[in-house]
Amino acid sequence: MDDPEILDLTPVTIADYGVCGYKDVQKHVELQRKIQWFTEYYPKGLRIKALVSKKDGYQGMLEYIPGRFAHRPVDADSYMFIHCLFVGFRNEFKGKGYASSLIDACIQDAKSARMKGVAVVTRKGPFMAKRDIFIKKGFVPVDTAKPDFELLALKFDPDDVGPRFRNTIGKNRDLYTEGLTILRSPQCPYSEKNVVAIMETARNKYGLTPRLIELEDADAVQSAPCAFGTFCILYDGEVISHHPISNTRFVNIMEKIRG
Q1: What distance lies between CA 193 and its chain's CA centroid?
Q2: Strand blocks (E) in the chain
Q3: What's the pTM value of the predicted model, to 2 decimals?
Q4: Most buried by CB count within 10 Å: which residue of 1, 22, 37, 73?
Q5: Which residues partner with 74 through β-bridges?
Q6: Whether 13 and 137 share a structural domain
Q7: CATH number of domain containing 161
Q8: Confidence band (pLDDT; 50, 70, 90) for 54?
Q9: Separation between Cα atoms, residue 69 and residue 81, nearest integer Å
């Protein structure tokens, strides 16, 4: 196995490597939306570092942005905020310290920018990096959000209060008390997949009129009613999925709700 490189992607070069498994800019709407979003936030400090093997290609990535523009419902001004961390489409790239190297690169950028530290939201399960690797790097828990989200921070000044989840997360669910609502942002490419099928199922199988809300910017995401921020499904005011899900999973959830 060759030693992969950490490359700084730009809105121009991201199409050469893809993101999250989406590689064909002509075919994948997910990649098209991601590039448009990357282009908008790159001047504001958004960075994507890709782990690339000469032989096996794209094997991981780290995405981060100044906390003012974080696409999570957090107050994290003056912190660099990590959205995503993933390493190892192929197993041989896992457990080699590459994820740690990606985090180190982010930490160095945060120090160079004279920020207060680095923050990240973690959760058990899909779509979120596990907390363990961040704890090993010196991150500490600073806040929590239901059902099991945790906000971690590496504070360059240990006495700093640190970032917090926004207290509007639960309150804003009152805006979606009737019917089925799907919220999504192009920050997460997976927020595109399956939404059309879920909305069709909602209409045809459950007689619902689903509402799709596009979270157009960081402010909209920071006002989201769930801690993941960039995707959420609510039914009669209750969050039924914090992350993108398949149509099959949606049916299973609705069948349990409706008994």
Answers
A1: 15
A2: 5-9, 47-53, 57-66, 74-75, 79-87, 117-122, 140-145, 149-155, 164-165, 180-184, 211-214, 231-235, 238-241
A3: 0.92
A4: 73
A5: 165
A6: yes
A7: 3.40.630.30
A8: confident
A9: 9
| Tokens describing residue 22 | 């989406």
In degrees, rounded to 5, the angle at the alpha carbon of residue 28 between the alpha carbons of residues 24 and 29 is: 140
Asked if pLDDT for residue 88 goes beyond 70, the answer is no
Range of the domain at 55: 5-165
Give the pLDDT score at 86: 84
117-122/47-53 β-pairing: unpaired
β-sheet bridge partners, residue 121? 151
Instruction: Indicate if 175 and 110 belong to the same structural domain.
Output: no
Residue 251 CB contacts under 8 Å (≥ 6 apart), including other chains: 201, 205
Peptide bond into 73 cis (omega under 30): no
Chain centroid offset of residue 100 CA? 18
- 162, 155 Cβ separation under 8 angstroms: yes
Range in 10-24, 56-70, 105-119, 206-220 with the lowest mean pLDDT: 10-24
Among residues 165, 189, 205, the one where a domain terminates is 165
CA–CA dist 234, 121 (Å, integer)? 21
